[in-house]
Amino acid sequence: MAEEIKQAVVASNKRRLQGVVISANMQKTIVVQTETYKAHPIYKKRVSVRKKYKVDDRNEVAKVGDVVIFEECRPLSHDKRFRLVEVVEKGE
């Protein structure tokens, strides 16, 4: 019982992000772009900040334009540090 609770806590500590697939040309890897907003330090206006992540997609289910949720994991290669959790919305 205590083991199950401990494992659930460990799994919940991983960072989960949501983004749009912008490339699916590699085998078992997709590139996902996230967009967040930050306030500009001087002008105080909202500025969009985009970041790209390489995500492991073992079953190759995600296509370009899909909205996906992915989570942090151990390093899988030089750039890959995330695994695909689910496809939230299919693209065009």
Descriptive report:
The mean pLDDT is 91. Strand 1 (16-23) and strand 2 form a beta hairpin. The protein has 92 residues and is mainly beta. The chain has a single domain (15-89), classed as Beta Barrel (OB fold (Dihydrolipoamide Acetyltransferase, E2P)). Strands 1-2-3-5-4 form a five-stranded mixed β-barrel. The protein starts with a helix and ends with a strand. It has one helix at 2-12; strands at 16-23, 29-39, 46-56, 67-72, 82-89. The protein is built from one helix and five strands. The protein is globular and about 45 Å long.
Keywords for this structure?
92 residues, mainly beta, OB fold (Dihydrolipoamide Acetyltransferase, E2P), 5-stranded mixed barrel, 12% helix
* CATH hierarchy class name: Mainly Beta
Would you identify the regions where 5 or more consecutive residues have pLDDT less than 50? none
Determine the mean pLDDT. 91
How many domains? Answer: 1
Structure classification: mainly beta
- Terminus-to-terminus distance: 45 Å
What quaternary form is this?
single chain
Give a count of the beta strands, DSSP E runs of length 2 or more.
5
Question: What's this entry about, in short?
Answer:
With 92 residues, the chain is mainly beta.
Q: Secondary-structure map with pairings?
A:
Blueprint: H1 2-12, E1 16-23, E2 29-39, E3 46-56, E4 67-72, E5 82-89
Parallel strand pairs: 3-5
Antiparallel strand pairs: 1-2, 1-4, 2-3, 4-5
